[in-house]
């Protein structure tokens, strides 16, 4: 009988996003959840031997508690045994819809001990579960409570102003709103401050240029597919952008988002009595003059909140942005195309996470040809669950919650899986032929568990949706099982 169950929901205030609902549920391609080639729908199996089969799921018991935000895990709850987990999970792990290449690691969340595994050390394509590794690098090198500042300063002459990028790509068009993550810093508020400063300095019309040199790197990781960008499935990695400009499936984002921000600010300044002409941005622009006077500034939501959006919404460009900022915080330039991936691997190695088999080409999981191991992902998850890395634990609280949020919002709704809705939380990963989950759950005895499942040879007859259903059945069985 379930003795402790809770739907712990990470409540991020991410109002202001104009993203389509289909993106949020990781079904239709889109910037929030899209990991590469469009997902393929399941088709009827071609032969009886291809028909999916799985072990009966344990019966759901009444939840002892369904109060959001209450911990369901207790240190006194017994961990499941390997024998019990094998009996409950082995047939589900071999589901034909997952294909012949499956890596699994189930860990005790309190001790980190591996309790059940299937070929966890073999390197496989991770898709967007790679973001779990990148999140660790971000939490190791950035203060999650710090904020990004977007500034306007004086330029090379009294009639020039410089818009200085500070990393915030979730700027709002209107007034700053402290209750939001997307739109916490607003262009209208910035324009108000700058206009007041210009009036006080008795400056009328101005020219505006952009300094986008902070954490500057390639517009796109070189291994991203151009057609994905053109289709609006991801966007350029910048340090200055508006929420309203971000890509959506079917609508590409501007190649130079800084130009759109400058135009919005110029329009706002002109409306406030200071006619503003925008100078064209060449490359990343030139740095603002040393000792320039600040005319206005707005602060973003915290790094922790931005990382929460990147994980919950599976935002590729935002993940790349945060890793580049983490590099700069450690004194490393972000200009080298392969630098961010090497930075993540180096951070893992320093923490003792095994890096054998890791081949990272980006930090978001969008590039084809990448590999990680279930072991590495599980090691990182247990750094959080065992509280060895408290900041990572805090960040991973933003992972999508089964049946409730982010890329798991429409999953765990079937008759087979709905009993555990609100309990597992995990990072999804989806590419054509690849389906994965990495996250945490609480079993029927109240024991915290971490799990990783990588399937990178999903058969075409099953399709992405079939593989996702198989993954969800596996996690459901794990969650409902006390497995003594």
UniProtKB/TrEMBL annotation:
Biased segments, Low complexity type: 48-76
Protein name listed in UniProt: D-alanyl-D-alanine carboxypeptidase
Keyword Metal-binding: no
Keyword terms, alphabetized: Hydrolase, Signal
Domain of life (superkingdom): Bacteria
GO molecular function: serine-type carboxypeptidase activity
GO terms (BP aspect): peptidoglycan metabolic process; proteolysis
Transmembrane segments: none
PANTHER family: D-ALANYL-D-ALANINE CARBOXYPEPTIDASE, PENICILLIN-SENSITIVE CARBOXYPEPTIDASE A
Range of residues in the leader sequence: 1-21
Residue segments, region Disordered: 38-80
Lineage: Bacteria, Bacillati, Actinomycetota, Actinomycetes, Micrococcales
A Pfam match: Peptidase_S13
Family: Belongs to the peptidase S13 family.
InterPro entries (alphabetical): Beta-lactam/transpept-like, Peptidase_S13
